Amino acid sequence: MERIRALTHSGTFHADEVTAYAVLALAEPETVPRHFTRSRDPEVVARAEIVFDVGGVFDPSRHRYDHHMRERPLRADGTPYSSAGLIWAAFGRDALRTLVPDAPDGLRERLWAAMDREFILPTDRIDNGIGEADGLSYAGLIADINPAWDDTAPDENARFLEAARLADAALRRKVAALLARLRAEDAVLAAAAAAADPRVLELPASMPWQEAAFEHGLPVLFAVYPSRPGTWRIDCMRPEPGSFGQRLPLPEAWAGLSGEALQRACGIADAGFVHPARFTGGAASREGVLAMARQALAHA
Questions:
Q1: Cβ pair 142, 13 in contact under 8 A
Q2: pTM of the full predicted structure?
Q3: What three-state secondary structure class fits 202?
Q4: Facing residues of 61 across strands?
Q5: What is the pLDDT of residues 169-197, one digit of tens each?
Q6: d(Cα 117, Cα 101) in Å, to the nearest integer?
Q7: What tens digit of pLDDT does each residue of 209-250 get?
Q8: CB proximity list for 101: less than 8 A, separation 6 or greater
């Protein structure tokens, strides 16, 4: 009798079980894709080693991960799980070992939590009717892969695996983006710890830094960093996430100036430009851009 390592239901599929399958296939790439089936037959379901989104049982000790029961599994905040969240909780860390094998355990655990919060939880919510999926959402795009109502010879399993490839690509891209963001957070905190003036953050490269500054309550007013070869940038900190303002804009007398005009206005020999909105500027050297930061602080 053929081994069934993982099983979900046949018929119309949704983002939660497609995502759950993609996570399992990453966690066990040598076994799950080779020993996977879709069925609602109780005898077939009983034979499977891992069952998700079908079967009426939630029991991780037996690898049963359904969520359609009257007493359904809930997250700590009361949000109902879908099969995506249940499989992520049980196998997500193994999936990340496949995707980011060289990441330290501590970073991988932060990445697991960030993925759960930003990718898996929204999938749980939509599957449970908490929010709606539009046609361009992740869940909507997966739903569109189901056979059409008037398809006279649909291959449901082939369509499911097509949807799983979309889910796999989305998982990989989100993991890569979140990993980059977490590494940026670490770089921001290291720069803040080393700063001579906590209001000026000197970064090793251009990176997303403001979210980390908000999250950790850093008193940053400016970030400086090397841009392209031979140039450095200074950026102003926003007063709150999503704002287009600045906690402290660059001096009004510099607004919109560049080259020699800016150099005369600020007295910095290699100052390059200041945006008319005063939220960013640049110089040819680290010393020049730090001098711009010091002068902006002095003007304030």
A1: yes
A2: 0.90
A3: strand
A4: none
A5: 999 999 999 999 999 999 999 999 999 99
A6: 21
A7: 999 999 999 999 999 999 988 899 999 999 999 999 999 999
A8: none
Q: Are 251 and 296 within 8 A, CB to CB?
A: yes
Residue given tokens 């949807």 in the structure block:
163
Concatenate the DSSP letters of all residues of 178-199 into one string. HHHHHHHHHHHHHHHHH-SSTT
**Dihedral (C-alpha) 232, 233, 234, 237: value to the nearest 10 degrees?**
-140
Instruction: List the structure tokens of 116.
Output: 């759960």
E strands present in 31-176: 36-38, 50-52, 58-59, 64-65
Q: Give the pair of three-digit tokens for residue 258.
A: 């560049």
Q: What residue type is 25 in one-letter code?
A: A
285 alpha-carbon distance from chain centroid: 33
Asked if 73 and 8 count as a contact pair (C-beta separation under 8 A), the reply is no
Q: Are strands 200-202 and 64-65 parallel, antiparallel or unpaired?
A: unpaired
For residue 122, the SS3 value is helix
Residue with tokens 């003007």: 299
Q: Which helix (H) or strand (E) holds 65?
A: strand 64-65
Cα end-to-end distance, the chain, whole Å: 77
The CA–CA distances, whole Å, from 162 to 46, 135, 214 equal 26, 17, 40
Q: Which two tokens stand for residue 3?
A: 């081994």
What is d(CA 69, CA 287) in angstroms, rounded to the nearest whole number? 64
What letter represents residue 88's amino acid? W
